[in-house]
């Protein structure tokens, strides 16, 4: 038995999220269908670094699965990409130690959130960026984001009614990149709570619009209360970009 | 009565082309639906510079229509973009002389054709670029394209069984732009026959792959025979970029 680790990308537009669900098209279902075909009808479990919600994209999601087949990695790459639907691509695959676990062994993740600040949004970006017509004060957003850096209880930035008890996480980096009308937020940390990046993006959007002050952020973190933070930003602006493991 | 000229963009992925068709979602149908709503149930004809096929995109299609309403242009822009589906956007609108005709008065058009040369195509570009894994000799494609410049009978680059009799057109410019893994062909001319840009793109792809020599192109043009040219390249790589009118 071999354990394989694959890095995959998917366009979240056509999926009800990553995780298997009855009667829904999900990334996990599509992956399992293809692995079942390759394994001649035998069901193969797929483990991802974590779920992503409906409409959320991934450029560097990581999965693992076990196989008894001895196909070279180039053969796996080709077979998976031939059999998978075009909105999921496997970008790399490698054999890993049998102890590797795509979910339990993550040491960090990078997410990207994209806004389109055009007056009229392009029909080509409508599923890939969140449209904000109002001018955003990016310097204020940058300043506000500094309050997130470090190790904090991120309860204010976690969807209510989640089962997770320990809400302490570490954020290493929050950066804003401007590319013409596009604004990207890149956020990197040890781990993220449910909806955490989207609540951060939503709260920082309110800072950018002048509805909240940059200085309020440390108070919002300290409140450890979901109601203290801003709205959850839309799913389709979010990309899971990198999953880190101890090398 | 006023005549309005609008420049529109659409993502062709979700349309059975521009032109109205029974039981199909087309750009013209969506435009007419919205104009009917604005005109309180009165049907308004919409004239475009020309049709585009299913899956073909537009960044600068031009349409005209007549209205009895006296709304300022900013109001038209807002109303149309609120009512239209997100995969069609109106980028500008202006009042023009009643003699203006979006189709009959065109003096030229620019199209763009996009290839993605990544080894593994991104799930985000699958509907917007044509994937070519094999290396393309772009210099050979550039050299071959020179044979198209000028005024020629373009019968070799026109879908067979078309009703058009005069197949003489003038091409002013064919340029190739490389942006990392993306390859774009920009082609500008007085007018284009049915499938002309796609047959040119397909034939030049064959040159790029080494299946045809650049020097063959002038012979292909001279043959004035559709069978002399290469395959029709896929629709989803094609963009109608600019429509020109006498100013």
UniProtKB/TrEMBL annotation, chains A, B:
Primary enzyme class: isomerase
The entry's keywords: Isomerase, tRNA processing
UniProt-annotated binding residues for substrate: 111
Organism superkingdom: Bacteria
Listed Gene3D superfamilies: Pseudouridine synthase I, catalytic domain, C-terminal subdomain (3.30.70.660), Pseudouridine synthase I, catalytic domain, N-terminal subdomain (3.30.70.580)
Keyword Secreted: no
InterPro entries from the UniProt entry: PsdUridine_synth_cat_dom_sf (IPR020103), PsdUridine_synth_TruA (IPR001406), PsdUridine_synth_TruA_a/b_dom (IPR020097), PsdUridine_synth_TruA_C (IPR020095), TruA/RsuA/RluB/E/F_N (IPR020094)
GO molecular function, one term: tRNA pseudouridine(38-40) synthase activity
Active-site residue numbers: 53 (nucleophile)
Catalytic activity: uridine(38/39/40) in tRNA = pseudouridine(38/39/40) in tRNA
Domain Pseudouridine synthase I TruA alpha/beta: 6-104, 144-245
Catalytic activity, EC: 5.4.99.12
Xref: NCBIfam families: hisT_truA
Function: Formation of pseudouridine at positions 38, 39 and 40 in the anticodon stem and loop of transfer RNAs.
Quaternary data: Homodimer.
Family named by the database record: Belongs to the tRNA pseudouridine synthase TruA family.
Designated name of the protein: tRNA pseudouridine synthase A
Native organism: Planococcus wigleyi
């Amino acid at each position: 038995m071999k354990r394989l680790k694959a890095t995959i990308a998917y366009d979240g537009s056509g999926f009800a999220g990553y995780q298997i669900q009855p009667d829904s098209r999900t990334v996990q279902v599509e992956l399992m269908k293809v692995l079942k075909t390759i394994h001649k009808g035998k069901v193969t479990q797929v483990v991802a670094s974590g779920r992503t919600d409906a409409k959320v994209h991934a450029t560097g999601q990581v999965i693992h699965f076990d196989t008894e087949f001895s196909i070279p990695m180039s053969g796996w790459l080709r077979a998976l990409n031939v059999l998978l639907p075009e909105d999921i691509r496997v970008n790399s695959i490698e054999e890993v130690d049998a102890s590797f676990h795509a979910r339990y062994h993550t040491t960090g993740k990078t997410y990207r959130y994209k806004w389109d600040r055009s007056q009229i949004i392009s029909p080509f970006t409508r599923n890939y960026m969140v449209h904000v017509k109002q001018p955003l004060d990016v310097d204020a957003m940058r300043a506000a984001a500094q309050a997130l850096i470090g190790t904090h209880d991120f309860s204010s930035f976690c969807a209510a009614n989640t089962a997770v008890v320990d809400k302490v996480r570490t954020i290493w980096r929050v950066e804003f990149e401007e590319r013409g009308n596009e604004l990207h937020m890149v956020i990197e940390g040890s781990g993220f709570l449910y909806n955490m990046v989207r609540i951060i993006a939503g709260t920082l959007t309110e800072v950018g619009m002048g509805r909240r002050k940059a200085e309020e952020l440390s108070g919002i973190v300290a409140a450890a209360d979901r109601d203290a933070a801003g709205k959850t930003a839309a799913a389709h602006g979010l990309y899971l970009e990198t999953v880190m493991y101890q090398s």
